[in-house]
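Researcher: Please translate sequence to structure tokens.
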Amino acid sequence: MEEATIIKKNKNTQQPLDYLIDKNKKILYLQIIFLFLAIFVILLKLYEIKIERNILFNEELSKSRENDKVSDKLKLLKLMTNNDKTEYTGLKNCLLNNPDNEFCIYHLILPKEVCGKKRILLGGKLSGSYVLLNDFQDIKIAYSFGISTNIQFDKALADRGINVFMYDHTIDSLPYENPRFHWKKIGICGKNTNHKMLKNLEELIIENNHINEKNMILKIDVEHWEWESLINLNEDTLEKFKYIAIEFHFKDSKDFKDNNLYYNVLKKISNTHQVFYTRCNGDRSLKVNFGNNRICNMIEVSYILKKDNTFKKDEAIYPIYELDYLEPKAGKLEMNLNILKLFDK
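Model: Translation complete:
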């Protein structure tokens, strides 16, 4: 009887002991789990810190490289402006601060190469020639404003089977006739006017039943009136022209109105067309002031419609003599058009 009682007591004391052991095991397991979780969180945090450091490092590296690029551009800019302090300062400000404003238009006349197409000079090495590309597929019509006595460019187009609609109200006749020449004694203007000798481009397109035409060519050389004639054109009209070749004339002025007009016209064209060739024209020693900058008084710019074309950085060194018609005069300064490439991002 006493032995049975002792056995029973032992069983009763064993049960609490087993309970304590099980409880301690659970606590231990939980502690191990929490330890692993803590280690995982620490490792995750260390990884995040490493990622952040890599990002910061890459950002700093990118900034450093960008700073190096800017530094290189400024060195080239100084060289290209022949240490002309005024010109260098104006260009530097455009390059570093805000290139997209009415006093900084260089990026808007930046040429790029058109992939798979070659630049060619039409009209020979004479004033009045223009650079287009060796692609005249589906081009049947050209508009040419500003003729005077030089029609070599127009003849080059006519020789390719293109009908050239020519306009100049300052002449009484063409130097000679061609079956593909269609000349009228009319000048181009910007807005609808009652002047019988002036019409805007959209009026003439309607008048010639070309409203549904595409892939046309537009050439304009009208002694500063190009700005007014282009400012109000809508993009649908611009997109009718595969090529646009314009001689832009800049006045020597710090007048905000003129600068704003220059910027808005160039910006408008750049929405639909890409520059593929640029050259100083006329007296290449003559540069004019606009805003705090200087530029050639006449710049000839060739555009192509952006859609259906791809572009790459222009590696050519300007002037490209095989596409030019004037040799630079000895001792005469001109704007170094390679400066434009510094604005290529």
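Researcher: Any highlights?
Model: The chain has a mean pLDDT of 84.
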